[in-house]
Write a structure and sequence with these properties.
Elements: E1 2-6, E2 10-16, E3 19-20, E4 24-26, H1 28-37, E5 42-50, H2 55-63, E6 66-74, E7 81-86, E8 93-99, E9 119-122, H3 127-136, E10 143-147, H4 150-155, H5 157-164, E11 169-173, H6 174-181, H7 186-194, E12 200-204, E13 210-214, E14 217-221, H8 235-250, H9 255-272, H10 279-283, H11 286-300
Parallel strand pairs: 1-5, 1-9, 2-7, 5-6, 9-10, 10-11, 11-12
Antiparallel strand pairs: 2-3, 2-4, 7-8, 12-13, 13-14
Helix pairs in contact: 1-8, 3-5, 6-7, 8-9, 9-11
Length: about 300
């Protein structure tokens, strides 16, 4: 039950209608790893940080049973930093600052003990970086999941298409799906994207849930309606962590089990938005997760008589 996560460990500085933070713990790999840790999965992170990264953040991740041996510390370097401001609808955000710092020349090195993971979660990085991780493994993982974004579609299309051939599951949002496929209908978009390599596609729709496509099968998972959303940052990565973590734990990669994994991911993401950064995930208990899963079950369960 091993999950290898490749992605960013970073600083975020966030402003929403509910408040503002200084530099806090962020990064895709951080959220993915912490979400997966809720499922008792052996998770390891491959990333890079500067020597400005606090030991308390490393200790927090270690306390969640996340293996940090794949995190490279660059002496004299600065950690990747992103600052953003969310507008009143909490669906739109403006990037104020992006400082790649040590991430700019990051060449991931997979530790010896992690060269044969059950599940590989490739976070949103340059396709050549994602490809290099695959090339370092002793054997192909049972499941390879990849996240990407419109920036890589704009600037590294050929490299992205190359790595997609080695991927089982692709996760993108609805805007990215339309850009990648040049189709407005998400159903048509999914058909085109599945021809590019992955056998399964997840299209994330933020507060409107997520769609799962596999061959001719489609599944929709709603997002939990919440009274207050304090900070959406990391929700998509938390979703990915719950999804990949559940599949690594159960060792069942069927479409039916991916439906369950989608619900786990959605449930964990619904916690992340309740506080800034990783604060809610860091204090989350198993009992709370089970209660939230029960809410999701009641949200989607109904009886209907068909003639």
């Amino acid at each position: 039950m091993s999950l290898l996560v490749v992605g960013t460990v970073a600083f975020d500085q966030i402003e929403t209608p509910f408040g503002k933070t200084d530099k806090i713990l962020g990064g895709a790999a951080t959220f993915i790893g912490m979400a997966a840790s809720m499922l008792d999965v052996r998770a390891g992170i491959v990333s890079v940080i500067g020597d400005d990264f606090p030991q308390e953040y490393m200790d927090l991740m270690s306390s969640k049973n996340i293996d940090l041996s794949g995190i490279e510390k660059v002496e004299g370097g600065k950690t990747f930093f992103w600052a953003g401001r969310y507008r009143n609808d909490m669906n739109t955000r403006d990037t104020l600052t992006t400082e790649l710092n040590v991430l700019e020349n990051f060449q991931p090195a997979v530790p010896t003990g992690w060269k044969n993971p059950d599940v590989l979660m490739l976070g949103n990085l340059h396709p050549l970086v994602q490809k290099s991780v695959l090339n370092q493994l002793d054997a192909r993982p049972k499941l390879v999941i990849l996240d990407t974004m419109n920036f890589w579609m704009d600037h590294t299309w050929n490299e992205l298409m190359d790595v997609l051939k080695d991927v089982d599951v692709l996760t993108i949002n609805d805007e990215e799906a339309r850009q990648m496929s040049k189709e407005y209908s998400l159903v048509k978009a999914a058909k085109k994207i599945l021809e590019m390599g992955p056998h399964t596609l997840i299209i994330k729709k933020g507060e409107h849930g997520a769609l799962l496509f596999h061959e001719n099968n489609v599944f929709f998972a709603p997002a939990l309606p919440l009274e207050d959303v304090f900070d959406p940052t990391g929700a998509g990565d938390t979703f990915a962590g719950g999804f990949s973590g559940f599949l690594a734990k159960t060792q069942n990669y069927s479409f039916e089990n991916m439906k369950r994994a989608i619900i786990y991911g959605s449930a964990l993401a619904s916690f992340t938005v309740e506080k800034f950064g990783t604060d809610r995930l860091s204090e989350l208990t198993e009992e709370e997760m089970v209660e939230r899963l029960d809410v999701f079950k009641s949200l989607t369960n109904f009886d209907i008589e068909l003639d």
